[in-house]
Write a structure and sequence with these properties.
Rossmann fold; alpha/beta; 388 residues
């Protein structure tokens, strides 16, 4: 099958804009995110087919919007059969004039669906993430789906780059000095199945299989690891600030910087890393400039969204708490799930510095400043609270 021919499996749906829709690309307080960065020396032509999996999730519509704004005119968006595609359809209706866009519904656990979805695709942006809280579910929905996509891509022989969207969760952040830098060279978790959670385990294994296929089959890939992606549509406070699991809020982050990235900044970073020549085999961390501390973020959230009681837990006490919880979970043979453990403490609450220097050297700059992004985020959270 020629690489330019789209799959027969596709279900083309006519996008319509809901009457009460507010575009994901221009939330009320922010119009500058419609500006495009300049793409130079990209690996495909504007009419080459690009596949985006997980296109209906929080990040997916923003990635589709970024691709369309940057002139890519042949997109296939893959979503689950049960997915709510309202935001995705609205983005396509708003920005998709003159572009060929297929909306494909299916399940990447199916090899047949994976083969059909990847047919003709020259670049794959793999956003699909496992939603299961158990290790088997997370493995199936992250690792098995990724393997199916990779196998299907090898079968078609069209792929010029597989762009795997990973996470900061894969970094162990252990064995470092207190203020040691965490960047792309930092070690990833080696014992994810024992010391962290299902999501970390699945993301580590997902990265491993992509790297393995790159080495074994010379499959071109890039791994993109966003920090904490935020923006309108995601109201929850990142776990790097703390937890409300006990009926009141424990503030664990303190003076730590939070590796935030505004959703449109993140989407542009993924597009740049995914399409720029010479990036094969590279890993890119995505985080914005002027990162707030956990304490400042929480203070601003209370001021602009709504006040609630929180208790600060100093780092020494939070580490002891996680250690005790982990030991009791082991002693009880899992009767108390290890929701808090030393692996999580190192990954989320240990004092750490971050760098986006590698991505900037590729040509990326965050077009939405952190102050503006937080304003948009808090405004959307406040509206959600008022309408709840």
């Amino acid at each position: 099958m020629p690489c330019a021919v789209p799959g027969e499996f596709s279900t083309q749906e006519t996008p319509t804009v809901p009457s009460n829709y507010q575009a994901v690309t221009s939330h009320g307080c922010d119009q500058r995110i419609l500006r495009s960065m300049e793409l130079k020396n990209i690996i495909i032509a504007p009419d080459d087919l690009v596949l985006i999996t997980g296109a209906s999730g929080f990040l997916g519509p923003h990635l589709v919007a970024s691709l369309l704004r940057h002139g890519l005119r042949n997109l296939r968006v893959f979503v689950r059969r049960s997915s709510n595609v309202r935001r995705l359809k609205a983005v396509i209706a708003e920005l998709g004039a003159g572009a060929r866009i297929e909306m494909v519904r299916g399940n990447l656990l199916s090899r047949e669906d994976s083969v059909a979805a990847t047919r003709g695709a020259t670049v794959i942006f793999h956003l699909t993430r496992g939603n299961g809280s158990s290790f088997p579910d997370a493995f199936m929905n992250s690792v098995v789906t990724t393997r199916n996509l990779l196998d299907a891509s090898l079968e078609h022989k069209c792929l010029r780059r597989f762009v795997n969207i990973s996470s900061f969760a894969v970094y162990s952040n252990k064995g470092k000095a207190r203020w040691r830098l965490l960047d792309e060279s930092s070690p990833v978790e080696q014992n994810a199945g024992c010391t962290r959670d299902a999501y970390c385990f699945a993301k580590v294994k997902q990265d491993q299989i992509v790297i393995e296929y790159g080495k074994k089959f010379a499959l071109p890939y890039v791994i993109v690891r966003p920090g904490s992606v935020y923006g309108p549509g995601r109201p929850a406070i990142t776990g790097r600030v703390g937890t409300g699991a006990f009926g009141f809020y424990l503030h664990m982050g303190g003076s730590n910087r939070i590796p935030l990235t505004y959703v449109d900044n993140c989407a542009d970073a993924i597009v740049l890393a995914g399409l720029t020549q010479g990036a094969d085999g590279e890993v890119f961390n995505v985080l914005d400039d002027d990162l707030p501390t956990s304490r400042r973020f929480l203070r601003l959230y209370k001021k602009h969204v709504g006040h609630f009681r929180s208790i600060y837990v100093p780092h020494a006490f939070s580490y002891a708490f996680c250690w005790l919880w982990e030991k009791y979970s082991q002693w009880s043979e899992g009767q108390l799930p290890p929701a808090f453990n030393r692996g999580r403490w190192h990954a989320e609450w240990k004092k750490t510095r971050y760098s986006n220097g590698k991505l900037k050297r590729l040509g990326w700059t965050p077009k939405v400043p952190t102050a503006e992004g937080l304003t948009c985020f808090f405004e959307a959270c406040r509206e959600r609270e008022q309408n709840a």
